[in-house]
Amino acid sequence: MRRSSAASASSATSRSSKRHAKRRKKRNRNSIRVQASDNYFFEQFQSGPTVTVLNISTTDPSSSNSAGPAPLSIVRLSINDNPQNLHELYVEALYTIVHKVGRSSLPMPEHQLIRYAQQAFQIDEVSHTMLMDRAKKEKPPIVLLNVQLLEARDLVAKDINGFSDPFTMMGVVPGRRASRVKNMNSQNTMRDENGAIYGDGPYGGVYGADDDFASRQDDGITPPHSPSAFSNSGMRNSPDARGGSASVLQRFGGSFRRKLGGGSRKGAKSPNTAIPCKLIKASSVQYKTLNPKWNEKFQFAVDDVATDKFHLDIWDHDDEETRVLDAVTSLNQISGLKGLGRYFKEVAQSTRAGSNDLLDDFLGSVTIKIKDIPSQGLEDWFLLEKRSERSQVTGHVLLRLWLSTKEERRPTTHEDEDQPEELVDVKQHVELIRQFALSEIRTSGAPVGQFQGHLPEAAVTILHQHAIQGDLTELHQAMCQWLAYNAMINIGISYAFLYDILSNLISKWRPLALDKDHEDLLAESFEAFNESCRRAILDHRSATNKPSSPGGSKTRLELDSFGNMIRCLKLLRESPLYNKCVPFHKEFLTDIADILVESANNYFRSLQLESQSPPRTACDELYILVEGINQACAKFAQFDPIFKSYAEVDYAHHTYQEFDRLLFEYISSEMMSEKSTDLKSMLLKVPEDESTLVAILKVHCVLKEFNSYRKPKARYKMESVDWSSTFDRAISKWLDVAKVKAFARIELACQLDAQIQIQSSNEIRHTSSYVDICHIIEQLMWFWEHVLVKDLLLRTELTEKLVQSVCKIAEYYVDRVMTQLAADGFHGQLQPNLSPAIINIFCAAINNSEQVRRSLAITDKLHLDELSEMHEKKFRKEATWRITLERDLTNCEKYIGEQIESSVDRMVRRQIAQLKKHVFHLAWSPAACPVEQSLKPLTDMLDSELSLVHRTLLHRNFVRVMYSQVNVLLQLLQECVTENAGLEPTFYQRLSEAWNILQDFFHAEGKGISLEAFETIPAHKVLVSQLSLNQMPTIKLIELYYKDLLKEQNDVNECKYGILNLRAYYNSNSQTLVIDVIGAKQVIPLDSNGLSDPFVVMELVPRCRYASQPTARTKVVSKSLNPIFDETFEFHMPPKIFPSSMVHFVVMDHDFLRSNDFAGEAFLDLAEVPGFGQPGMSNTLRQFNLILIHPSRRPRECVNVLGSRKEDKDAQEFVRSLTVTY
């Protein structure tokens, strides 16, 4: 059942929506008919048949590379269209995985890396198996250990001067030796350019085959004996090169000899004691220091990463005449393993023969397992180890170690055959980055522009291994990232991301860090990026003219991308890396300025071609040309901040100046033509035909807009083009024509209104006519804002004419609507029950009128402040015409509002009889009946009436209905109070509570009349005041009367009736109020002689509080306006005074023949008299200067209320006292 109800509701809603859509469609058709009736006279300036400016590209579309491409999503895309090249790159990736080097902090299994590579390259299983076999069959790479000896610290001092002369000797010690001793006698050694010893075999060199030093070390890394024991043999100072280098070689030989079996230091030789040393290198000597700094690099071949070790010794060099490198180089003179063994034996025997002391020159050693070196390299301070417990070794050495490889494979492609190996590694790395990036973009399904270079762990591991095996430094890797992602611009890679990549590359680059081939590769990519940016700047207008998504989000993204492109270009062009790779180029700022000028020129030429096809009149051609330029200038707000922020170039200035020059040249050329249909002939006089008039004014509008983009204080060529006189006359004529066209449209729109049947539904009632009238006013104001009358007097005159036309259009339309409403039966005294059709017609009429009234808010669009200022500055007089204009608009709005309110009042007052009945029921319901219950019939009726129009009226009109109901109820309640005066206060209290409830009803929780708005209704304030007074006790009303008089006296600003001077105090001891009446000044003359005979009467008021107190009176001072009385009066009274207690002074003019005349009165507030409530001040006199007043003649409400209380003795006595004369 519920589903059925829901389905029915949904179906009803659908049918209702369709009906609404049909009515809207019909109303739209009516509006189109109205506009077409005068050939779109008002609309031609915003969009007309002649305006066909297109999005024009200034570059070749096939080569254009927009700064903000559409968000691309990649389904299947690779970097190589050639499957052969893709397979070769895949083999390279597999080869890298198979031959991983170094220890990883987060090791990933090989099969996971292979699986990821297969997915990234999208290789099927058959091809994968074949290519995997190829990768495994390739010759394994040679592993290289790279060592950077940086510095050492806190070494032991070995020399007398307290320093040492440290140097290092280092090499790779093989871990597997048993199988490597074979055939060593046939191996020869050779020397590299640094003096390192290489063997012809896989181990480079072999030490200790016949050397008895081989038996002195065990298999551990035990430091050697000091070779300095042979220092007395004289070999160090021997001029013989071989003898001079013997001590150095002995040190190194002792360190690298290993004892494979057990035995004492002097034990017999063990079999297989030969220790192969594949590579030996020595550093330079740092003299007289304990904290040497070398910063030297070395490279060693590693045979077995799992077992080989790196060993380093630090020695003190004491022979200043022998270079360490020479000592190591002398090994190059030995051929054969036996000769090498005899050489070390000879050195050892000769040095021992002269040994008389045990001086130790050993400074420490370090041994590092190759397998412990992380794949990303290692840089650390290593603790120097001792050779024995008696050795004095301290300090640390700072080393940086990393692994790389050297491949001896054939080139992967034919293109790589003639390229250096380093360049091949770089290109392969670039292609791998791109392939993995494309795979991630494809997998995520997100637009390319959202990719920020985040690759999965597998991809990072493969790239990291490829960089290690290719010996690619961080700089090389940064270069590869730039080359890879720069090549992806054409598919929409983010320029913000590219900026970060470029920043990283520039920050890592140092002079001479890259070889020529790599610099050439970068130069090629930089030039390609520069050209891509140049094309994007040339074509930047059309790039952002493409259709965008709702809300303009695409445009914002495009502008952000374009800005990041400029930022990236500036970073590149101003970097030292770009200057090194591309040495001959323009300055960046000059180049950008030239590109902007070229872009403007290309755009103008394209517009010119567009304006001439198909052939048009001269005015139409000029209009299309300037309109297209304005479209480009409108984008200054978008592009100028970008170029200023990122390129420090004034985009608007360069572009506008070029447009100004080109447009001036075009107009100058056109004005020299002598044809009858040329521009010059059309602008000589105001045309009679409407089409030419509109064409001239359209040219004026676009030229005015073009001039609005100028910068102040700058000079432009178009300033010399002045057609203002022709334009001024054309504008005046157009306004005359527009007024006639507007009234014709009103007639047609009202006629078409009758064809639309207003049906009952939950939507705002209106017809299409108000849309047409508001559209006319809007078009008039748009036209006025887009034209400029140079003649100031004419401009003022036309402004008045425009305002008068708008007001007449609005008033005429409202009159037509109200006349039609009356013709439809809404006139005279309406019946209480109206048909829905009449109610709908009523709602549509007042809604239409209200919409037109709202359209009259045109003051800001008239720019009256600016026009008034110009008028006053030029003519030196006040712009009185502005007051007239504003008064006309105000009167027009007021007139429309009165028409609406008159109709609303007629609608509400049709039920006044029923409302009066409900108010009577409320007033005379039993006191036991709650007010809410008594009020319910009235509120139900009001709610029912409001519900009829709640959904069909505009909010302002709905509130007007509520205001009308409020006014009717206020009238009825006021009549009830007036007709029932003098009743008990509870009667009025009940009416007051009812009115408070009604206020909340009309407030409707903030959706109706605001509570503050009630205070602006005069009838509300009168009713609330009367209800409040009628609820007050009599004494309170009397006190209120005197309080009002005292306030009136205190508020007087001028002395019209004189001043009464007196002194007063209260003696608390005798409980006496003492008053000294001194005199009066400036009493008004009341006698025929221009004088008066004044005397003063005083009494304590209110009299009901002080009935026992007598009335005092001074003597009469004859013929004086400034009498002196100087009399004292005493009133015995308790110290506690009542609220509003005061002394009432009345100044009278004594008359012998007639009654005395009233001269003025004053009041003294007893609360201000010293002594009342102020102990210790009872004897202090205080003088008072009381201004005499004449009470206002208007009746006081409190007196009227008191007079209505016929049964209240005090009230009647007080009213009679007001008529007593003295």
TrEMBL record:
One of its GO terms (biological process) is exocytosis. GO terms for cellular component: late endosome; secretory vesicle. SUPFAM superfamilies: C2 domain (Calcium/lipid-binding domain, CaLB) (SSF49562). Residues 16-30 have a biased composition (Basic residues). Residues 122-351, 1056-1181 form the C2 domain. This is C2 domain-containing protein. Signal peptide: none annotated. Keywords: Cytoplasm, Endosome, Exocytosis. Residues 697-817 form the MHD1 domain. Residues 932-1041 form the MHD2 domain. It comes from the Eukaryota. It is found in: Cytoplasm; Late endosome. Transmembrane segments: none annotated.
